Amino acid sequence: MSLRKPYSVLVVIYNANNEFLLIRRTDDINFWQSVTGGIDEGELPIDTAYRELLEETGIDAKQLDLVITDLEKTHQYEIRPCWRHRYIENAITNTEYVFSICVPNQTQIKLDPNEHTAYKWLPQQAAAALAWSNSNKEEILAISCP
After folding, report:
1. What contacts 74, CB < 8 A, 6 or more positions away?
2. φ/ψ bin of 65: left (φ > 0), alpha (ψ from -120 to 50), beta (otherwise)
3. How much is the CA Rg of the chain, to the nearest whole Å?
4. For 38-68, b where at least 16 C-beta lie within 10 A, e where not — what string?
């Protein structure tokens, strides 16, 4: 496995019931998040968003004819010390590109058991309260649901 560059995506997933999907990491039972993932070499952030959505939730947006929206925002945050070994040397800060997607109600979720152990659909305020990272909380609250 090659070391990651400090660039990633955040994909906030919600439905028409104003429920937001959060998934729990395998390496920290208190770490609930929206879909996230590192941008591979030569990959555009939007392509990473589609790939990570499929890998982490089983939602194939392209096959379902769903569009991931580029919110044209980025966040920078300090990489947790316990995760820095995954990154290139001296990477301390990560740049996160932000996306969102509205999926049909009752969308089936299939987690990758190597990455996540559970998922929850929650109302907006509850999802923001449970999300571990501040940028994730902020982006959940910024979504205006239909």
Report:
1. 95, 96, 97, 98
2. left
3. 14
4. bbeeeeebeebbbebbbebbebebeeeebeb
Distance between terminal CA atoms of the chain?
A: 41
Record the tokens describing residue 13, joined without a space: 């997933």
Tens digit of pLDDT at every position of the chain (146 positions)? 688 899 999 999 999 899 999 999 998 899 999 999 999 999 999 999 999 999 999 999 999 999 999 999 999 999 988 889 889 899 999 999 999 999 999 999 999 999 999 999 999 999 999 999 999 999 999 998 66
Instruction: Extract the tokens encoding 116.
Output: 């996540």
d(CA 140, CA 34) in angstroms, rounded, equals: 9
Geometric angle at alpha carbon 133, from 40 and 103, rounded to 5°: 70
100 close to 73: Cβ distance less than 8 angstroms: no
